[in-house]
Each structure stands twice: as C-alpha cells, then as structure tokens.
Amino acid sequence: QLQLVESGGGLVQPGGSLRLSCAASGVTLDDYAIGWFRAAPGKEREGVSCITWSGGTRNYADSVKGRFTVSRDSAKNTVYLQMNSLKPEDTAIYYCAAIFLGLCSPYDRYGYWGQGTQVTVSS
User: Which residue in 99, 90, 106, 85 sits closest to 39, CA to CA?
Assistant: First the structure.
C-alpha cells in the first residue's frame, strides 16, 4: 500500500522560496505519476504540477509556470516541488497524489493522497 508524506511547508515572505517533498515508503515512486495540487479557502482545488512515472513529461499550471519546478530523486524515493518567487496567492495546503504507471491527470484520477502541507506567503 502506497503511503505519501508531504513536508517542507511553512511561512515565507513574498518573493521567497520553499521546497516541498513528497516521500513514500514501501513502494518505489518511480512507478507512479505524481501530481501536486493545492487547496485554498474559498477556492477550488487546483492542479499545480505533475510528473509522469517515466519522468519524461512535467506539466505546470499557468499560474506557477516559470516559478515552480517538479523533480524526482529515485535514490531518496521522493518527488520535490521547488517553489520560487512565491506570491501571497500561492498560499494554500499543498498535496501530492499518485497514479500507478500513470500520466498527468485530473485530480479525481489519483488514487493515493498525502495529508497535505500548509504553505503561507505573507509579509
């Protein structure tokens, strides 16, 4: 059974950076497409980024393109979301989710979810 654990959230000033981690135990994340999603109060859940199981495709929402980067570290069995030039509108709970041997997909196609990590961008 795949279990995902996000970490790396926190409070950061506008323009700052954070790196979120999505770690797994028991199975290799290399066999899963990983999506990053965020949920902010009063807003619909938003897909932020994803990386396919092969790592060959990485997608980004227009709102984060050029600022966020998704990557894998197979040795650490972890997927990262590097977030630079953070803005107050990036404030949300960030979740990673997984699809076995999957492609980047809408959130309802992901079968495994982490517990989320809070990101707050404020001065």
Answer: 90
φ, ψ at 16 (rounded to 5°): -80, -175
Residue 116, class by beta-carbon neighbours within 10 Å (0-12 exposed, 13-18 middle, 19+ buried)? Answer: middle
The pLDDT value recorded for residue 26 is 80
Q: Is the dihedral of CA 9, 3, 39, 61 positive or negative?
A: positive
Inter-residue contact 48 to 61 (CB < 8 Å): yes
Q: How far apart are CA 76 and CA 112, in angstroms?
A: 19
Across residues 94-123, what is the average pLDDT?
93
* 36 touches 92 (CB < 8 A): no
Q: Is the pLDDT of residue 56 over 90?
A: no
d(CA 57, CA 97): 16
pLDDT at 32: 94
